[in-house]
Write a structure and sequence with these properties.
Elements lengths: L5 E7 L32 E6 L7 H4 L2 E3 L19 E6 L2 E5 L4 E6 L5 E5 L30 E8 L5 E4 L6 H8 L17 E6 L5 E6 L14 H4 L8 E7 L5 H15 L1 H4 L3 E6 L6 H12 L5 E3 L8 H14 L24 E6 L2 E5 L1 H8 L6 H14 L1 H7 L7 E4 L2 E4 L6
Parallel strand pairs: 1-3, 2-4, 9-11, 9-12, 12-13, 13-14, 16-17
Antiparallel strand pairs: 1-8, 2-7, 5-6, 5-8, 10-11, 15-16, 17-18
């Protein structure tokens, strides 16, 4: 399976249904009245964390998600049906960022955790809702609100208890295959591990913990050299690290220091994260070399193990110790700063633009005005007057005057066209 840990998606919540203008027409009812129902609300869009997912691969094939729109209102005061909500599953550990504001709006860590990212539009009111003692026969309704359209960036930070670090070919993949059922690709050349591998290790108590084999780091990884820059974030959520050191290399201590320098450059938290040092490939060095390196590393680390991932020597001792540490060390609290997400509810489209298309003709562009025009009958004076009152309140006529409109000039809003006379507005 391909490992994808970054993705961009576009979400569009459901539009609210329009209200309707309708009247009671019943045989034995002496007086009728307005009976237009409200439109249904548009569907919301949620992101839901799912521990069963481990990659953002699905979003490579589908990146646009639309929730269902609400139905229009009906006669006899019947409401339109609301649009169904849309819940999009993402791996646990997904950080969500709004591309427009560049703010982080969610950090989905726990299985089943969900966040609303786009609220559906409110349904428009039918003419029954506008009935008052003074106005008993309103001949207008309200359009539904639009849905919210957003572009989001998803970034996965793996949820693992233990992170394996080390230079390329230090033996991390061999080690994870020895302690779990994970079967990563193993070969003797740099960057055999191109993606993080996850393995579940069983504890003596029967439950398990997750170990992540992170692609090998090299000097400069924190600045994008090699593969480390892309995957360092996957160890940020670990309880602790196991640093695999290859004893067959020319200077194991120097390699150990280089990787720790990269961790420090990436973040203070990684630099201070507890580490177990596993001196690997003891089957390929003599006893004196083993003892010398063991003493050398004990001066810089509290917990040092001599192992051979290939022959499994001392691997059980290390995994038993790791299980103890998993129980002792709590999972780190997320340090991701989540901003208040007003964008999930902001479906105000009241902005407009006045365009002069001819010497005596102007077009009014704007989402709210277009929706109002869509529920306005040009043969109905009440509906036309209501639209013009809304335009007056929004400042449309003031803007037309600034553009130089004169009496008798044509104004076009949606499918409607009327002549402008300044004394009327």
């Amino acid at each position: 399976m391909n490992f994808i840990d970054k993705a961009k998606i576009k979400v569009i919540s459901g539009h609210g249904g329009n209200g309707v203008v309708a009247w009671r027409r019943e045989k034995f009812v002496d007086k009728g009245g307005p009976a237009g129902g409200d439109g249904g609300r548009g569907g919301d869009i949620y992101l839901v964390a799912d521990e069963g997912l481990s990659t953002l691969l699905d979003f490579k094939y589908k990146s646009v998600f639309k929730a269902q729109s609400g139905e229009n209102g009906r006669i006899k005061n019947q409401y339109g049906k609301g649009g169904a909500d849309l819940k999009i599953k993402v791996p646990a550990g997904t950080v969500v960022r709004d591309l427009k504001t560049d703010k982080i709006i969610a950090d989905l860590i726990h299985d089943g955790q969900e966040v609303i990212i786009a609220k559906g539009g409110r349904g428009g009111r039918g003419n029954a809702k506008f009935c008052t003692p003074q106005k008993r026969a309103p001949q207008y309704c309200e359009p539904g609100e639009p849905g919210i359209e957003r572009e989001l960036a998803l970034e996965l930070k793996l949820i693992a208890d233990v992170g394996l670090l080390g230079m390329p070919n230090a033996g991390k993949s061999t080690f994870i295959s020895a302690i779990s059922s994970a079967r990563p690709k193993i070969a003797d050349y740099p960057f055999t591990t191109l993606v993080p591998n996850l393995g579940v290790v069983r504890k003596p108590t029967g439950d398990g913990y997750v170990v992540a084999d992170i692609p090998g780091l090299i000097e400069g990884a924190s600045e994008g050299v090699g593969l480390g820059h892309d995957f360092l974030r996957h160890v940020e959520r670990c309880r602790f690290l196991v640093h695999i050191v290859d004893l067959t290399q020319e200077n194991p201590m120097e390699n150990y220091d280089k990787i720790n320098d990269e961790l420090a450059k990436y973040s203070d938290r990684l630099a201070n994260l507890y580490q177990i040092v596993a001196l690997n490939k003891i089957d390929a060095v003599d006893e004196e070399t083993k003892e010398n390196y063991y003493k050398q590393f004990k001066e810089v680390a509290d917990d040092v193990f001599l192992i051979s991932a290939a022959t499994h020597e001392n691997v059980d001792k290390l995994t038993y110790f790791m299980a103890q540490k998993v129980d002792e060390i709590e999972k780190p609290v997320s340090d991701v700063v989540v901003e208040e997400d007003t964008g999930a509810y902001d479906n105000d489209d009241s902005s407009f633009e006045v365009i002069k298309v001819a010497k005596d003709a102007f077009i009014i562009m704007g989402g709210k005005l277009k929706r109002l025009a869509s529920v306005t009958d040009d043969r109905n004076r009440q509906q036309i007057l209501r639209l013009q009152n809304v335009m007056q309140g929004m400042g449309v006529f003031d803007e037309l005057r600034k553009k130089g409109i004169k009496d008798g000039d044509t104004v076009v809003v949606g499918h409607l066209e009327f002549e402008f006379y300044d004394d009327e507005f």
